[in-house]
Amino acid sequence: MLKRRVSTKEVKRKKELSERRFHKRYETIAFTEESETPKMVVMKAQEQILKAKRKGISIPIKEVSPLKVPVSKLRLHLKKRHYSLARPQFLPSKTFYPAKPLTIILKPPKSESIRVPTLPPMMLKRTTTPIPKLKLKIPENISVRPLLHPVNIKELRLPSLSLKPRSLRLRLFTLPTKALKHKALLCIPFSTYRTLISKEKKEAISISPVKSTTIASIDLGGKVPDSVVELFLTTNDERGIGNAFKYVGEPIYIVLVKSPTKEYECCETIQYLCIRVLREVGLPTEAEIRSAGYSMDEIERYLGEKAITIIDEKALIPIIKGDFKEFTKKSLEVTFENIDENALADRIKDIGKGLRFIIFHVNENIAKLFYKKLLKVKSKFHDKIFLVKPVDLSLKYRKKLAQLMWGLISIHASGSYDDILGEGKTIYYNKLEEIRSTVSKGYMIMYPKISSHISGEESREHYLLKHFVAKVLVDNPPHDLELAKIRKEERYEYIEFEKVWNEGIISDAYIKNDDVVIEVETLFGEGKRGGDPIAKIRDITVEKYIKSNIELRELWIIMENITMLMHLGDLWSLYNIYKRLYSKKRIRFKVKFFTLDLKNLRFVSIEELIDQIKEFPNI
Amino acid sequence: MSDMSTSMKDHLRNLVSALVNLSPSRNIISQLILLLPRDLRTIEYSYPEISSPEAKEILAQLGVRLENTVRRENFANKLYEFIHKLFDWLDDELVKNVRLNLAKLTGLNIDSLPNPYAEWAELVLRKIVHEKNRVALIDLLRKLSESEEYCSERDLQTLLNEIRKKFKLNPAEFEEIVQICIGSEEERIESLKPGSYGYSSEYFEYYLRHSEYHLDIILHEYRYSAFYHKTDYYRLRHRNTLREILRRVNVEEKSKYERG
Lengths: 619, 260
What we know:
The complex is a heterodimer.
Chain A: H1 8-27, H2 38-55, H3 71-74, E1 167-170, E2 186-189, H4 190-199, H5 215-220, H6 229-232, E3 233-235, E4 251-257, H7 267-281, E5 287-290, H8 296-305, E6 308-312, H9 317-320, H10 329-338, H11 341-350, E7 356-362, H12 364-376, E8 385-390, H13 395-405, H14 417-441, H15 460-475, E9 495-500, E10 506-511, E11 516-521, H16 534-547, E12 554-559, H17 561-566, H18 568-583, E13 590-597, E14 602-605, H19 606-613
Parallel strand pairs in A: 4-7, 4-8, 5-6, 6-7, 11-12, 12-13
Antiparallel strand pairs in A: 1-2, 3-8, 9-10, 10-11, 13-14
Helix pairs in contact in A: 10-12, 13-14, 14-15
Chain B: H1 2-22, H2 28-35, E1 38-39, H3 40-46, H4 53-62, E2 64-65, E3 69-72, H5 74-90, H6 98-106, H7 116-128, H8 134-146, E4 150-151, H9 153-167, H10 171-181, E5 185-192, E6 203-210, E7 218-224, E8 230-236, H11 239-259
Antiparallel strand pairs in B: 1-3, 2-3, 4-8, 5-6, 6-7, 7-8
Helix pairs in contact in B: 7-11, 8-9, 8-10, 8-11
């Protein structure tokens, strides 16, 4: 292949081109001396290279010598990094043109003063005015000696009071119907009251002392029943029907009026409630029902042996020596008058040891007479005698009562208290067993593993309730929990049963990401603490967390509906105490009380339960 | 007897005066010792008095080592510890009602008996209020003084995050505020042997967290229970004093703002 000839012109043109490119490259450099143009510098360099080529020798290089500076001085000082909010800006390349001389101004680095201005030194001197000293006087004689001779009370007459109060505190029932709409306690001017009274029928004004308001009265705006028995039983006793089902350490005599119609029959319900009370105290719960055909000796023997004894009116025939059907009202009174009081007192003394329920289930006429007879002998031994009558609640409320007592389940039965509550109990336990079965089948797949109590015994109810808690937390957790935001399939990993803390505390359940501890309370066997099962919640369940350092946001106490209803008054007070303590930051976690809703699988708070109770006509 | 008791009172008054004057709020040397270790340049800039040879000699005698980083040694270290004790003692952190009892014993009005910590904290706060992020600083201090006595690390972190979000602080600014208010360096000040308090198996260790100006609000308490399980929580100190000072400083700043 022939090579193309290159003309001299072309060579020159190429040279010029390369020179131009070279010069262009060096134009961007900034120079301090204006006399030395880039072109001149390049020329000089080229000349040097040409000279060297002509001579045929290389440019000599000076020997490299180490810097004679001590190494320590070369060490860099790390300075404190000052953060600046000014962001670096990117400037366009044009801004470099034309090249300007670079001047560096050296300034001393800005130092931060850490000095805090001081106060002048001082010498403490005595205060000009001496501090007043407290002088203790000889204690005064404050005793008031009687100046008047004692006189017989009969001779004294009460002074006539002429009070002109500006305002009166009136009880609810004394107010006319217009005022009843407002509040339980009203404070109105006396003149207003007089005008109200004049319009309507005048009633007796009772001036009650001003009572201190409690949280219960503020929050609820009404009365909280002490116990569930107040919903379906009444008594003429001032102590209240609730006291008939509390531990007192002595036998409790209940004279239960037999309902004339069967729909208000509640003897078996009372028996069941007595069993519950005895279970809480931790006593045996054997029951014996005596209806007829027993001799006096047999009855006396059984009275002493069993924890609950129900004596029907027929069984009393040997005692009163005759049949009730044969007696008229007057002859009955005579018969009861003739009963030897000392003998009756002796019989009752014989069986008067420890908590025991003796229920006399008798007709209304006999009940009153029998109750009076028992009351006559009460001063000789004790006064735990109650005359109890079932409330005539309609079927709707009887069903409602059963629902409240048994986990808000739906009940289809109709009939007496015993029929409805009995069916409720059966459905309640069956439902709990069903939940237990479902949860236990899904251990570690869907539901957390639930072990029985690590230390001590555990009742069946407690065990079943733990399964219910697991079911609710996985299937339908309360919406305010973080747990509710987690996928259902993963929730079980965040729930731990029988959680053992390092401080030796064992929690029934613990929700990890919510810092919520759950304690299941059946109160069985806890009445040994002075016969007060609620003391267990106060002194152990809550107290152990107060004393510990466990990081806790809320403590939930889950109870059976019937248990919560039987101690409603005490639990409501306790709940309000903890609420107040938390608001004053004296405890670091909230304490909440819940019961069960088996129908909707959720927890029902104590407030909600009380709201439902308020619907009852007799509350 | 009465002369003796009077002289004892005078001695006590002198002692309290000495303690009060030892406070960094009233003495530049103890202030310098408290704020060490620092960069020499910062110290020279903040305390120009120390450039004289005489001052250097004084500081050397006290155990302050003037190098690139100014450090404290020997006696200066003890003085530093003592200043902390003094702060705590007269601010009722170690024993309750100390100033009240001292006022009674010396026959002085309690208001004329200074509280070194309160004085120091007030001076520091008055210096801080001129800083860039003063609002965030004051807010954080107020929240700390108003929170409960004990808090967990999570609570503290939540509080700090709140402040950071509220004032939209960048990491550097946030770090600066944390250093002034809370600090990061912890020093073990005390440890209780097993069984000396509570159960025989458990024991405690206390670490004081030093902030930049030694407001030292946080005491980190570690509790080692059985099997050496460790739980820790923070105790917030000097809360009442801080609350009172913040209120006072805030009122004065407001009045200045209204006037200005």
